[in-house]
Records
---
Amino acid sequence: MIFKKQSFKFKLIFSYFLVVLFSFGLVAFFLDKKLEENSLQDLKSSLINQANLIETQISTEAIQNESLLYLSELVKNFSQKNNARLTIIGLSGKVLADSEKSQTDLQGMENHASRPEFKQALVGSTGESIRYSSTLRIDMLYVAIPLRYKKAVIGAIRVALPLENVRRNLLVIRKAVTLGFLFALGLAFVFGSMLAGTIIKPVNKIIHASRRFSLGDFSRKILHDSQDEIGELARTLNKMAEDIEEKVREITIQSQQLTAVFNSMIEGVVVLDKESRIVSINSAIEKIFAIKKKEAQGKLFLEVIRNSDIAEEISRALKKGESVSRELILSWPVQGVFQVNVAPIYEKQGMINGSLLVLHDITEIRKLETMRRDFVANVSHELKTPLTSIKGFVETLLEGALNDKENSLHFLEIVHEHTNRLDNLINDLLELSRIESREIELDSQEIKLRDLFNKVILGFTSQLNKKNIKIENNLQSGLMILADKDKIEQVITNLLANAIKFNRDNGFVKIYSQDLTGKTKVIVEDSGIGIPTKDLPRIFERFYRVDKARSRELGGTGLGLSIVKHIIELHKGSVGVESVEGLGSKFWFNLPI
């Protein structure tokens, strides 16, 4: 069985092992001490009893007279019976008899007056001592009792016994205790392993389930029905998993909603940290600056979007901790007008943790505002010119010119001409407004394009004859389109009117088509004065004229080509022009077949 040192099972078993080791070791230690003390105490008691018994057999006269032969025989007899060493010591410390020494050897023995057991016996108490015997070269237990004569101490009887037998008996007991101790440790390990297993098994289930929880899998629950702390832990974790799963579901839904909102915003949004590193961008920013989200994340703002003006606004918002807003005209890395808004992002402690950049592309709005201003100015100018003329001639007539029949008729013709011009201008404005609003419904029908052109050409017969312009309709007779007949007729009328107005005398107008995939391209070519290259991109704008003076002189309102463009776009088509100044122009439009 292999245990990891840091595993709970190892720690649990090791704790059982330590408890048994400590408790049993402590018990064994005190038991050993107690047994040793009890053994010594029993031995001392036995020696004292033997000494007292011997005392009754010793004649006090023999002690006083130092009858060495008598005393020597006496101690040897008692020593053989008791297996103990007996010594009789006189009052001065002189050894009078010793069971282990002969009478001759007694003379060479040192005085025992300094021996601790003898000192205690001289004061009338039982003396005892354990020390190494230099004579026998073993540890001995000495017990001495006083010898009295008429209550006076006249000497001492000392009984000695080697401790070897006691130590041997204690060693046997210690071996038995040690074996019991090892057996107890083994049992502690076995039962500790079994008990730890019953505890660790549900803990391992909890760990395994917790790992699944950490990976976001809350489908499986911890099955443990016990009523102890582990069971309570399992139930608590199951409840926690349910709560987390519900919270994760809510957060996921909110995150998806926020992501959908974030990515569907037409405004460009950039989330940055406090070091101006990009945390996230939405799809609008990707389109505006032609960058990828994965490539931008984690990089400094200026590394991804190289515009110091925007970076300066971000830095200002982070330093001041206030929202900033500014309109910027960008020329790099993209061109356009943007409303830049930067707001700081705060942490709970009130510290700035980053910023939120919102870019609103207002290029088209500014263009529309410019077009609106130009439109108002152009309309005002277009209306003011004929109105000024009408007002002037009317005032002249009222001041007396009415009676001048020759001039008054001329004045009225001029007023009529300007009135017609105003009427045409207002009609064109209303028509353009209706088309741009896309509120009109197209009355689509199959149209033979060649026949429709021929019908319109008939209406320009006098203008063609006046300038001696030759017109050729080269459209195929079978060319059919699906469109609103009145609207397409208006397109043809405007294109032919311009081709005749701005043509040369003895010039030509050619009408032909080209087949495209799913569409037909109709071209109206003229031999007129042409259009300068710089004016080509704006030719279809409202009130835009290449030669304003001549255009007004020819009766144009400046709205014809704009009406043409909107009608064709209403039919899901497109328009264009090709021209070289002085060499004529080619106006064309595409329509689905």
---
Amino acid sequence: MKSLPIRNFCIIAHIDHGKSTLADRLLDYTNTITERQKQDQLLDDMDLERERGITIKSHAIQMDYIFEGQAYKINLIDTPGHVDFSYEVSRSIASCEGALLLVDATQGIQAQTISNLYLALENDLEIIPVVNKIDMDGAMIEEVKDQIVDLIGCPREDILEASGKSGIGIEGILKAVIERVPAPKGEEDAKLQAMIFDSVFNPFRGVIAYFRIFNGIIKKNDKVRFINTGKDYTADEIGILRLNPEPKEELRAGDVGYIITGIKQAKEIKVGDTVTLASNPATEGVKGFEDVKPMVFAGIYPIDTDDFEDLRDSLDKLQLNDASLVFEPETSIALGFGFRCGFLGLLHLEIISERLEREFDQNIIVTVPQVSYHCYLSRDKDKQIYLHNPSELPDVTTIDRIEEPWIKSQIITKPEYIGSLINLCMEKRGILLNQIYLTPERVELQFELPLAEIVFDFYDKLKSISKGYASFDYQITGYRPGDLVKLDIKLNGENVDAFSSMIHRDKAYDFGRRLCEKLKDLIPKQQFVIAIQAAIGMKIISRETISAMRKDVTAKCYGGDISRKRKLLEKQKKGKKKMRQFGKVEVPQEAFLAVLKLND
């Protein structure tokens, strides 16, 4: 087996540690992009990524580099840093042999750095530690190097210093990638096995799948088979990933590239599937990464019910580009037809809803996010019912217990914020497991928390309490029984299922009261009285009343007998009573969004 002049690597780091900027410098240095194509965050091609300064999608690009007279092909896969996009990171890691572990010299190692590092180590990737932003005023280069040595136990001299902004140390990084990252081990003579790690939808070409070839050779116009679906297609176009796709006649083991087969249906390609030749198929697929398990569920409904099919198409196309999104149709009494969608976290939900509005022009309503629960019935205590939606909860009298998901979290922060952060976690029903001083200036808090408590506003509060210095990461540990109740919101005695939520009994009264107060401010007045009630089962725990708009029916009466005015007022009273019986209360979009911001 000859050593191929190919290197595949990804960059892993915490959010905002300079991955995208460093990627820009690597592309500059290898002349992969021209002066005209240069711009900041070049690989972040979504408007949302640029506005927020975060990477949402993995992006792959090939660079050519000559080192000691030998030409090398270097495939860089840039990865996101936020905990909600760790699935993207796992897909990138499965396609690589090495990873740059990037640590900000001004902030040190953060929670997500550690999480992504363990992911890389599990996949036996060669780790190249890099201290970034060394030219900034607050850089603690030696301290950060100590942290890296403690974390991965590498020799101190193996740690590289760099600055993505000014281009310091870029040559050293490329040299380390070539010398330290192993060449791909693929056999060109073996049966074709290429793993799909991403895909996008092009309205003119259909689905474009990005893959990494582990074994074999693929040529243009070959008949290929997708092992997962068992369907055969023709490879109309194959090529490598430059800034713009570059068609090629053939791709070999170790290459990262794309394939266009003219597939128009999003469901026919699955990220993680293996492509092989139909004439000489491989019997099994490449073991890549596990199926994603969504943790936060919310309903997405079109504002106009006629747009239901358009919304379905948009979600199908978005799922191609983001395989961690799952959805299924559902109906709501208040909102009509829509979809129950599963997300990896609240930022993921926010990004998906914004992308639906911007990229697909969808006007949507997003309901209150929920986590999934396990419910066990009294008559069959071993039978498990999955609840993604509070409206699916069986009759309370038949329930034995409800279990909720718990997480183990790591918070890395400065010592002065420990007290406030412990208070925050205790408010959220947290259990303190450990407190470790990594250095005199950095401490790691380990907590167990119910996932439902961090879904709403936990991340925002964590950042504001610690003035942005705390970093947060978590892993799901399993399900535990909890004293959970279903909280319903009623408008004039009718349940609005979009506002229903599962909540811990101790917090139900406070949450219900605040939600009723918020809705009172947001629902416009009608010509009849509106009662807003929060209820647990048959018991009302909070109530607010929106008084009726009063039309002055006696305005035309001037002087004369009082009985005439009374007659008009009595007639109005009867009319209002009738309106209250038959009138419908329109709930504005802001009311649904307000639930997410209850603690503002």
---
Amino acid sequence: MKSLIKKHWPVISVIIIYFITIFILIVISTRMNHGHLIYAVDDAYIHMAIAKNFVQYGVWGVTKYGFTSTTSSPLWTFLLAMTYFIFGINEMAPLILNILFGTLLLIISHLILRKYVPNQLIIFTILLTALFVTPLPTLTFIGMEHILHILLTLCLVYSYIATLSAITRHRGYILLMVFALLITMTRFEGIFLIFVICLIFIWQKQVLYSGILGIMGLLPIIVYGIWSVSMGWYFLPNSIILKGISPILNLKGIAEWISVINLISRIYTNIPILILLIFSLLLLTYYIKKGISNDNKKIIIAIFIGTTLLHMQFVRIEWFYRYNAYIIFFGILILSSTIIDLKPKACLQKISWKNSKLYLVGLILIAIISFPFAKRAFTAIQLTPQATNNIYEQQYQMGRFLAKFYRGDAVAVNDIGAVSYMTNIQILDLWGLGNLELAKLKMNKGYNTEQIYNSAKKMGVTISIVYDEWFDYCGGIPSQWIKIGQWKVSNNVVLGENTVSIYAVNAAATDQLISNLKSFKTDMPKDIIQSGKYMEQN
């Protein structure tokens, strides 16, 4: 046991730190949220709702009333469904799965680093940096598939590296194809990494393997797309279609979509990724110029650069550290593992006061470069409990209110996660993630106030809880709707807006909605600022 601990103490120590951090965040978060385990983004509950409905009703949808192509991570949603099938519907499953995948990620990262970094203290430092800068504790509390995506990214890259060795080549090819299948089932942008490796295969004149790898990566997307189309939905999930930025189909639109200037602008505004890219390019240049024979490191750096550029070009949003997390972790791991190659000879000798100015300049440069990463790590840990509190005070309260007073009714909302998981209501998703009709209108630029009104009337919607500001671009909320109240949260760090407005969609629903809100107001967290007609009446 002692020898095992001595041999693996870096990863054991970092895993313990990871567990302690999660425990502290759980304690702080649950205290803020009156004993409830709450995830840091509403989207986590979309996966939980689909998994719940799949297990209970055999329906792959945000409600039990029909199929919805809302998830862009079929594997994560399916894993949740399997845990629900075995252990019952519960709110702990995303947290436990993420802790398990986070632990496995640290173990695999340690095994990789041991091949390239002989110093255990340096390995410990790299793992600890990756833990907090990525940041894994925050991703754990987001309750989604991003840690699994990072894990599969590393597995895919180093399976490819295994194909470069005569000893592990056969096993490497098999693992490469398996992980290619899994990564696009987890997140569709895994295709960026697969595309880069396919190009390298072609460069190595292994066209057959490039083709097979590409097919394996595309297969989950194609199968899911065919299933979605057969159910009457788009080929791609609504979450990708509506959140992504598609090109305008003319020369100017396509030119702007693939514009290098726009790419540089996006990288420039993301300082940690900018730093990682600069160092990657410098390292690749260094290896080529010095004629260093370690092709593995050169290829891994090239894969990182290519994947990062594709990601920054085509994934143009970032929301609470989650979309570029796999880039950050991957970059830290591969760049840090090259430190032994770049160690100056002076560092191997006894420190001399004659070089004190050189050391001082070096420390200042290290501090400047490290600052954006340290800021990211500190801010993420600091904001995570508050993010869970935001979700608790807004979407979670919406779910409680609707579950108590509007069971089985039709309700219009623009955030569908918690309300779909916590209730069995019929949901008109005004943002379009869970509604095909409105998604088509948005895609065809036909979405307006009149369409919102007609869709709500057609579905028999009685009340609506929405962000008013989100609909200004299309003409605003229908004038026929009657605003009864508003809930406002303070210290918002993750919500789309601070305030949600509650409407009676028709006059007949007004009195009942006022009565329900008056009955519910004393059951709300005290920090929520309530206002509107129901607060003005005795």
